[in-house]
Prior knowledge:
Bound molecules: uridine-diphosphate-N-acetylglucosamine, calcium ion
Largest sheet: 16 strands, parallel
Strand content: 25-35%
CATH architecture of the largest domain: Alpha-Beta Complex
CATH superfamily of the largest domain: Spore Coat Polysaccharide Biosynthesis Protein SpsA, Chain A
Distance between the termini: 106 Å
CATH class of the largest domain: Alpha Beta
Oligomer: single chain
Structural class: alpha/beta
Amino acid sequence: MKRNTLILAAGKSTRMKSKKSKVLHEILGKSALAYVVDLAHDIESDEIFVIVGPQEENIQLIFGEELNYVTQQQQLGTGDAVACAAPFLEEGTTLILYADVPCLCLDSLQKLYDFHEKKKNDLSILSVTIDNPHGYGRIVRDEFGVCAIVEHADATEEQCKIKEINSGILLMNTNDLKTYITELTPSNVQGELYLTDLVEIFRNEGLQVDAMCIEDEEEIVGINTRRQLAVATKVMQERINHYWMDNGVTLISPETIFIEESVEIEPDVVILPGTYLKGDTYVSTDCEIGPEVTLDSTFVGVGTHVLRSTVMQAEIGDNTRVGPYAYIRPNTVIGDNCRIGDFVEIKNSVIGSGTKVSHLTYVGDADLGEDINVGSGVVFVNYDGKLKQRSAIEDGAFIGCNTNIIAPLHVGKGAYIAAGTTLTEDVPGDSLAIGRSRVTIKSNWKEKSRE
Length: 451
Ligand code: UD1
Ligand code: CA
């Protein structure tokens, strides 16, 4: 007895007005289809089939070999989509999920499986009661249970008043599905094969059909339009933010904070407004992040503050201050007790513990040791027009303001570089390097120049 899951993803996405399929549009960094595929895994499906349109080879490339793909050549309706996969289904149950319904919860699916088994149904429908059912298929009930789903376009005035709607999620006996899917006809207003017509067919055959109504209509929001995509994003944002608040994280003005599902945060972190945490970001306890910070796949150690800055694929140690207005680019490792100040850009570099890079500086392709002071306006000149080269500065060095360090270079332990130096040679430890043109003072110049 197999748990088959079909994910319908072959729709035309006309209303999204996009080059790509609506199911590949992202909600907090993850595509709608990826949310649904994850659900299919979480519900312990034995086989997952994704029904894709003929132009969707990229779906196959993105999701790889672990799923089965069935191409629906023509978009003849949800019934046709399921019919395309039917020959591949093995005995057991078949769950139908829509790839454009990404906010569904695992808990609801588990309840649907329990409902299906307990009630010994042949077909179970996940339904929701909503105030504005416009556009959805309506659940029509009689004294024996659910007798039909009527699409909005086909509904009578009386049926339009029904507020219990079809979420699209169905669970059924696979053998019955395979038998009756061939009986669908396009005799409806849209001229499509409606999967939902199975309800009436099952009932006429004396099979058991029922609907389980869930309360949270947010779970079934479809992303047919960009407006609905925004609604789904808000649902997901709130769900994730609530999770972190329930787990000891303070969010100030949570409606302005976006945290992707893949992020991890320890308790007693404070996140301030306008912050976006993305990818594999990890924030340790006692940090203060924000306002207006973007952290993308970044590790942040204990007690660090990041303020109005962008940090990408980097690692920051404990008790360090970053920002305001710092730009930390990929492959940067910053140690403990560091100070990275305003208008500092760091890329592909290591900044040792206790080192300060406080203002207006570019550090690219450099390895800085511990307890170094980098003055204001320093540039690590890492690119000669052809090659990127690395420089190394050893512990305790002092780099004066407005120094240019022309890579590749090595500055020894405790060395001093005088302000304004353009450094083109290695500097031994404990020495002073000074390289600037001498100043000439012409006294009484102003008076003389007027003569
Ligand atoms: C469908 C249901 C409706 C339900 C609503 C919930 C039918 C006939 N109607 O309507 O009862 O209330 O969902 O959101 O099922 N797709 C294909 N191939 C096709 C057509 C669609 O793969 O030929 C896929 C789409 O990509 C989408 C899903 O099936 O993921 C639903 O199709 P859509 O056209 O959006 O159905 P609705 O009109 O919203
Ligand atoms: Ca839809």
